[in-house]
Specification:
heterodimer, A: alpha+beta, Uridine Diphospho-n-acetylenolpyruvylglucosamine Reductase, domain 2, Uridine Diphospho-n-acetylenolpyruvylglucosamine Reductase, domain 3, Enolase-like, domain 1, 3 domains, 5-stranded antiparallel sheet, 12 helices, globular, B: 165 residues, alpha+beta, Ubiquitin-like (UB roll), DNA polymerase, domain 1, 5-stranded mixed sheet
Chain lengths: 297, 165
């Protein structure tokens, strides 16, 4: 990052700190496109520092009570908009029942950034190299958007529209991320290749599977990180698995399908060919681990 | 401009900041505590790490106004008078620094680690400092220093943080 246009001081803005979600939504409506919500700020502030974004109004939801709630209810893990990556990384309940999320929480950015950055904020940022988006894709998460007309539940596939673009409409903010609680005989894992801690993923893969009583796979979710213009779902790989017993041979086929579905580009983190092969390797290893977890239950 | 209140190294302080004033600039320029360093300006290096309510945060990636009402600890708050904190002493003893630029961040991360985990393994130490970049030491002596500090701080220092050993 060099050159005349670079700047490390954000443009001036008006700072507002609402004390409730309805108040935040009303401020969003009032200021429209000029306003941005800030939660952990670990993606937003760097973008403001480089003046990629210059919101005139910053709405800090950091002081809204209740948004930091993390609880299981009605078959979902409900992750409030202020739940930080560190909480997911360290919560015992997550380690016990959501191994996919637990594994993701250990590799997002770096330990200090995880102290501030939130799961919901990462999804709203919609960076194709965002780890939470790939994990949520594998977990078939839902995103709860709250706007002037109340709540709207959006499937993760629908929520992530394009690079840095979500399905959020004017006046809406994300208040919760919902992860379906895995049933019996489930497993999940997240694997990431990064040049160094804190760098964006070269490639990362999240998987979540469930086996039936007969050992056949009943559900499979595979999310691919940093290998396309947007977080990708490896649909053909998922279809390869469902209805079949998860043999090594089948897992190998699914991993090859995932690699074929990936759309990596060549950059400083590696050539496309290398990244595509790493999708295969990571998918295979993550599925093997998830299958072991599921069969051990 | 907005007037905000912070507790800085145990002392109540009041400063006037713009919304866009980053915490690191508030600490260095408004509070005059230049021990907190600015390295990369992009959330990468960890030189600007301070503790906000005991939690390590990269102060280049937090607006000062977001920290209103919080307790901030900087490297200046480690020693008590002329007495170095055991973490500082360990960094000195083990040559846990060369140029010293990353050291304030390294020591504050160490403090937060040892408060949670008084006897960390080498792996746990390396993970804890993985958000802090040192370009001189190769990390060996930093890890050694943190292990020495952990040993020195048991158990009295951990039971009563800030007290001399």
């Amino acid at each position: 990052m060099t050159g005349e246009g670079d700047c490390v001081i954000p443009a001036a803005f008006e700072y507002l700190a609402p004390s409730s979600v309805p108040e935040a939504v009303s401020l969003l409506q009032q200021h429209g496109y000029d306003a941005k919500i800030i939660a952990g700020g670990q993606s937003l502030i760097p973008m403001m520092r480089f003046r990629v974004l210059q919101p005139k109004v910053l709405i800090d939801i950091g002081r809204i009570p209740g948004l930091d709630a993390l609880r299981e209810e009605d078959g979902y893990l409900r992750i409030g908009a202020l739940v930080r990556s560190k909480t997911i990384e360290t919560a015992e309940m997550i380690a016990e029942r959501y191994p996919l999320l637990s594994a993701t929480g250990k590799v997002v950015a770096d330990p200090i950034v995880r102290n501030r950055g939130t799961v919901a904020g990462s999804l709203v940022h919609a960076d194709p190299a965002g780890d939470w988006a790939a994990a949520c894709m594998a977990a078939r998460a839902q995103v709860v958007a709250t706007g002037p007309n109340g709540e709207r539940v959006i499937e993760i596939d629908e929520f992530l529209r394009d690079t840095f673009t979500t399905a959020l409409q004017d006046g809406e903010m994300v208040t919760e991320v919902r992860i379906p609680t895995p049933g019996p005989r489930s497993g999940g894992h997240y694997l990431k290749i990064e040049r160094k801690v804190g760098d964006f993923a070269t490639v990362a893969v999240g998987v979540q599977i469930t086996l039936g009583a007969d050992g056949r796979c009943t559900q499979a979710g595979i999310g691919l990180c940093a290998v396309g213009p947007i977080t990708l779902r490896a649909k053909a790989a998922e279809e390869t698995l469902v209805g079949q017993p998860l043999t090594d041979e089948l897992i190998r086929k699914a991993a090859e399908a995932a690699a074929a579905e990936s759309q990596p580009g060549s950059d400083t983190r590696g050539p496309a060919e290398y990244k595509r092969d790493m999708v295969r390797v990571l998918t295979q290893r993550a599925l093997q681990k998830a299958a072991q977890q599921a069969s051990a239950q | 401009m907005k007037r905000i209140q912070l507790t800085v190294n145990g002392q109540p302080r009041e400063i006037e900041v713009e919304g866009r004033t980053l915490l690191v600039h508030a600490i260095r320029e408004h509070l005059g505590l230049t021990g907190t360093h600015i390295g990369c300006d992009t959330t990468s290096c960890g030189a600007c790490t301070v503790l906000v309510d005991g939690v390590p945060v990269k102060s280049c990636t937090l607006f000062a106004i977001q920290a209103e009402g919080c307790s901030i600890q900087t490297v200046e708050g480690l020693a008590s008078g002329d007495q170095l904190h055991p973490i500082q002493k360990a960094f000195w003893d083990c040559h846990g620094l060369q140029c010293g630029f990353c050291t304030p961040g390294m020591m504050l991360v160490s403090k937060a680690l040892l408060a949670q985990n008084p006897d960390p393994s080498e792996q746990e130490i390396r993970e804890a400092i993985s958000g802090n970049i040192c370009r001189c030491t190769g990390y060996m002596n930093i890890v050694k220093a943190i292990r020495q500090a952990a040993a020195a701080m048991q158990p009295a220092e951990l039971a009563a943080p800030g007290k001399e050993v």
